[in-house]
Amino acid sequence: MHVKPEFSLAAMIDVIFLLLMFFMLTSNFVTTNSLNLQLPSSSSSSPMASTALSVSINKLGQYFVGKDRISGPSLEAALRGKISLEKKDPKDVTVTIAAEQGVPIEDVVFVLDIANRLKVKTILATSPKEESN
Length: 133
Hints:
By secondary structure, this protein is α/β, with parallel strands linked by helices. The chain has helices at about 10-25, 75-85, 105-115; strands spanning about 40, 55, 65, 70, 95-100, 120-125, 125-130.
């Protein structure tokens, strides 16, 4: 009696699909500088991990949560809504603040104050300082 081995492609497709879904759901999408802001430079050479929430401020004083433009007075409500969508404890959420070079410090402090009231951590995004030879 001779047994023929069979290969089931359906099982392999199921495993690949599950792996694909796992990596899609656990990955973070990089949106730190999606608005092409000219960030101030920093001598810190340690890159930080990308966060799911980002607030950008351009030279005109306009606020963006991700790519959505938000007015200053409604920024706190917009961030509170995004944090609630994270389904995590607010203390475990980190917001990246990307302020364009030349933005008044008051605008950055405004966002930091909101983040403090919402009890979330913040990271200030900068671009690497260019080495001069």
